[in-house]
Write a structure and sequence with these properties.
By secondary structure, the protein is α/β, with parallel strands linked by helices. It is built from 9 helices and 29 strands. The protein is elongated and about 90 Å long.
């Protein structure tokens, strides 16, 4: 159950933003590690350090299509006086037993193929006649079309220094090096490295499964017709997208009507696939705020496996909040307000850090910077509330967008930052340096 139960507070006392966040993060624990195939591990967090078992590349190899040669044999080569070398065979990528290159000899070599014994450098095919005796060529003919290209003679028109166009063994990483640190989020480049060093599986913390549901009989699925008094359900889409952006596997549940029994049943049904539940709406003081009513049964930890506490925060927007755990597995639940801006700001401040904590990350929060306020007039803020205003940030300045209303979705869509006005500040003049939460 949430540690909030031990906090000495009356029903009308305000929690600070920091107290509420601390309560959440002290309760949420990282998910247990599992072993996954590489592609299934994408987006997950690595549990253990991974060291390199074999150097990359594991052998000296060519970085060009061309000819493997000895340096002395092509010294002083020019178009007027080319070096004529005997071609002793092909070295293709994957060749296990390449030919040996002796004095006056060359081997036709492909990109990625091992440098053959005796060779010291590679000359690109464009520096040669390709064995055709007709001046510089632009490339090799396919072996299937011209197998004779692997024998005969080749003319080289430019010299090559030692190790020219050769990728040295271990030039990427060496055996024993640290490949990836524990705590790394596995994206495509990291998965490529794991595959390159021969790892078929990896131990990670799985991506959290987050179930998002909105409440309200007035909510209609986008694409359907609106009746009088109805609005489209945008919150569940916004929060599901935000959960995915934070790294979770997120499931959106259609809007649930203002009926406590229906909501309770829906939540219980979703527990089987949830590491975290997020609701939006129904947490204020209205007669139809059914999230409070539906979750009131969860107060008995012995019967319901947890408890959800509803509280008021000293913030704007997002004053009404709920947090606790439900079900036999004590699944964390965050209940957010229903106004679109309130729910999104609440997600960024509280749900996103919880998701990242479940992933086992230590960097839980959006980056914050200091910026000069660019505005035509002073910003007003209620004393005793930490206000989060939408804004756009660029080159050390932040500009407010939209007003303070918690229903202004269009302004939210333009914002890439939140302007933070502390609890003890009632007015912020243009040019004042403010704290900014970067959302993108």
């Amino acid at each position: 159950m949430s540690s909030a139960a031990t906090r000495p507070a009356g029903p009308d006392d305000l929690w600070s933003v920091d107290e509420h966040l601390e309560d959440i993060l002290s309760t949420v624990r990282p998910l247990e590690p599992i072993e996954l195939q590489l592609l299934d591990a994408q987006g997950c967090v690595l549990v253990d350090d991974v060291t390199v078992p074999v150097s990359l590349p594991p052998f000296d190899n060519s970085s060009m299509d061309g000819y493997a040669v000895r340096v002395a044999d092509v010294a002083g080569a020019s178009e007027e006086f080319p070096a004529a070398l005997e071609v002793v065979g092909d070295v293709a990528a994957g060749a296990a037993d390449p030919v040996r290159v002796g004095p006056g000899q060359a081997a036709r070599i492909m990109t990625g193929a091992p440098l053959p014994p005796g060779a010291e450098a590679v000359v690109p095919v464009e520096w040669t006649d390709g064995g055709l005796g007709e001046g510089p060529v632009s490339g090799m003919r396919a072996r299937s079309l011209a197998p004779e290209g692997a024998e005969g003679h080749v003319h080289v028109y430019r010299p090559a220094g030692a190790r020219a166009h050769v990728r040295a063994r271990g030039s990427d990483v060496k055996a024993g090096d640290l490949a990836l640190e524990a705590g790394t989020i596995l994206g495509p480049p990291q998965i490529a490295l794991l595959a390159a060093i021969g790892r078929g599986t990896v131990r990670v913390r799985p991506r959290p499964r987050v179930v998002v549901l909105s409440t309200g009989s007035e909510l209609v699925q986008p694409g359907e017709d609106l009746a009088t008094g109805q609005i489209y359900d945008s919150n569940s889409f916004a929060l599901t997208a935000a959960a995915r952006d934070a790294g979770a596997i997120a499931y959106r549940v259609g809007a649930v009507a203002d009926d406590a029994e229906t909501l309770r049943s829906t939540i219980e049904d979703q527990l089987i696939r949830a590491d975290l539940l997020v609701t939006t709406g129904g947490v204020s003081v209205g007669a139809y705020d059914v999230v409070k009513e539906a979750l009131s049964y969860a107060g008995d930890a012995d019967e319901a496996g947890g408890g959800v506490e509803f509280r008021k925060l000293a913030m704007q927007p997002g004053k009404p909040q709920g947090f606790g755990s439900i079900g036999p597995d004590h699944t964390p639940l965050l209940a957010l307000p229903g106004n679109p801006v309130s729910s999104y700001v609440s997600f960024e401040l509280f749900v996103r850090p919880a998701i990242r904590a479940l992933m086992g990350l230590t960097d839980l929060h959006r980056p914050r910077v200091r910026a000069a306020l660019k505005a035509d007039a002073a910003l007003r803020s209620p004393r005793g509330r930490r206000q989060f205003l939408r804004g756009t940030y660029a080159e050390g300045e932040v500009t407010p967008v939209g007003g303070a209303g918690s229903h202004l979705v269009a302004a939210l869509a333009q914002a890439d930052a939140l302007i933070v006005v502390p609890e003890d500040v009632e007015s912020v003049a243009p040019g004042t340096e403010v704290e900014v939460v970067l959302l993108a």
